[in-house]
Known about the structure:
single chain; mainly alpha; Four Helix Bundle (Hemerythrin (Met), subunit A); 2 domains; two-stranded antiparallel ribbon; lipid metabolism; CDP-OH_PTrfase_TM_dom
Amino acid sequence: MNLPNKLTILRILLVPLIAAVYLISAMSDALGGSVVIMGIRLPYSDLIVLGLFVLASVTDFFDGHIARRDHLITSFGKFVDPIADKLLVNTLLILLAWSSRISVIAVLLMIGRDTIVDGLRMSAASSGKVVAAGPAGKVKTVAQMTAIILVLLHDLPFAIFGVSLSDICLWIATAASLYSGAVYFLQLKDIVMETM
């Protein structure tokens, strides 16, 4: 197994660890304690989850970069990398919604869109058509990751000005998600509708 694929597997393995730390801290005081920065209390558990999330996100950057640079792109990598990305981001979005830190509606809309787009892609692939990710999909990913980081940081440093930038990023991600989903559907509707 090459290095990019090992990094992808590491990202997948970090997901249950992140979930365990988050759930343990939510259901007990096992990871009690906090640090105060600019008057905002940051629990150690949020900082640990943030560190693991950043580590997993860094593996996402490096696995793609190394695979392209060293010509190590494999069928396994093409299949598993997007799954690892969705597992990481969607797990955190679900956990944050479960603990009422972000909107459940936004998370349901984004996960619903992802499910539909994955179905469209599979249908298109079976017909030999490949649709590359558009700019709106990339905006969605960046906004999702930014929202997650800001929620775990309790909106620092923006919270001292009373701004919930995490909410703004979350709804930008939701809008970009729905828009890119509509673009996918319009590009692939002929394939989906042909056997109706």
